[in-house]
Design goal:
Layout: H1 3-9, H2 24-35, E1 46-51, H3 54-61, H4 68-73, E2 76-83, H5 86-93, H6 99-109, H7 114-138, E3 142-146, H8 151-158, E4 163-172, H9 192-195
Antiparallel strand pairs: 1-2, 2-4, 3-4
């Protein structure tokens, strides 16, 4: 299947089959693919937590608002987190990068102040999200990106240290009656002339 076909068929899953478990070897591939995600200057300011334990998923479901049932029923929940402290990023991540990367950061990012730096770091994690959703679709794994969660509660439940939850992704296999799948509810996107500009 071409990537265009994958893009046409991928959708945000609303209802999962609780019995649809992803094989461990597939999860290992997904872990490695996330590790290889691209980021500006190769900054990699992230941590990815894979959760399959039912007890933990049930705890997280209670602070996932309208995503509660998805978190319970899905095979795995992956929590995408960003490094919390700018000084930690500069000490542990930036110091390992080539000099040109450090020069870019110090000239183009750091002068903007802490709030802008943290926003820039978070943007890198969102790049990995796009990479991950595309990967799942190419492997016939259904997915649901979830910003509608209590991120502070997630941090408490997962006992995060040094990283803050930004969002989570449920992955698994759709329920056959999921009404959001394109065969039941056609995919809606803006027309090409509204989003593509050629100069």
């Amino acid at each position: 299947m071409s990537f265009l076909d994958i893009a046409k068929n991928r959708y945000t899953t609303k209802k999962y089959d609780p019995s649809g478990k992803i094989a461990e070897e597939t999860i290992a591939q997904l872990e490695e693919i996330l590790r290889l995600s691209p980021s500006s200057i190769n900054s990699q300011p992230w941590k990815f937590t894979f959760i399959s334990d039912d007890k933990t998923k049930n705890e997280l479901s209670k602070v996932s608002f309208h995503n509660e049932q998805k978190v319970k029923d899905t095979s795995h929940v992956i929590v995408f987190s960003v490094i919390e402290n700018v000084k930690d990023f500069e000490k542990w991540n930036l110091s390992r990068l080539p000099e040109r990367s450090e020069v870019y950061y110090n000239r183009m990012v750091k002068p903007k102040g802490e709030a802008k730096i943290k926003s820039w770091l978070s943007c890198q994690v969102y790049i990995s999200l796009g990479f991950f959703l595309s990967t799942c679709a190419s492997m016939d794994i259904d997915s649901t990106p979830m910003e509608g969660i209590d991120t502070e509660a997630y941090d408490r439940i997962l006992q995060q240290e040094g990283y803050k939850t930004l969002f989570a992704v449920a992955i698994g296999y759709r329920d056959k009656d999921d009404v959001n799948q394109p065969s039941i509810t056609p995919k809606f996107r803006l027309e090409k002339e509204n989003v593509i500009r050629n100069i």
